[in-house]
Amino acid sequence: MTLGAAATLARDAVLQLLVLAAPMLVASVVVGLAVSIVQAATSIHEQTLSFVPKIFAVIGVALLLGPWLGASMVDYTTRLFESIPALGAMP
User: Fold this and answer.
1) SS3 48
2) Residues 6+ apart with CB under 8 A from 58
3) d(CA 30, CA 21)
4) Alpha helices in the chain (DSSP H)
5) CA-CA distance, 17 to 7, in Å (whole number)?
């Protein structure tokens, strides 16, 4: 395996990680911002109040996008396994 092939594998893995994590992270940030605005408007400064809506948002996005996330992981893993023979043949 060459250095370029290893770099390509690492880059693809990081990109796949970002694609899988981004929807849940965005949902968490949006819900956290909305809860923060409500807390500022109502002068409620309870720090633990924002965790429950964030958890529900992340679980909801994971359930909604679960089939797509699973298919994306299977596709990436299949491509990775199919590339193993070509990686071993490189000088």
Assistant:
1) helix
2) 24, 27, 28
3) 14
4) 3-42, 51-82, 84-89
5) 15
The span from the CA of 38 to the CA of 15, in Å, is: 34
Asked whether the whole model's pTM tops 0.85, one would answer no
Q: 90 φ, ψ to 5°?
A: -75, 140
The CA-CA-CA angle for residues 31, 18, 23, to 5°, reads 30
Question: 33 is written with which tokens?
Answer: 């911002």
8, two tokens: 């390509």
Q: What would the pLDDT profile of 25-84 be if each residue is shown by its tens digit?
A: 999 999 999 998 998 898 887 777 888 999 999 999 999 999 999 999 999 999 989 888
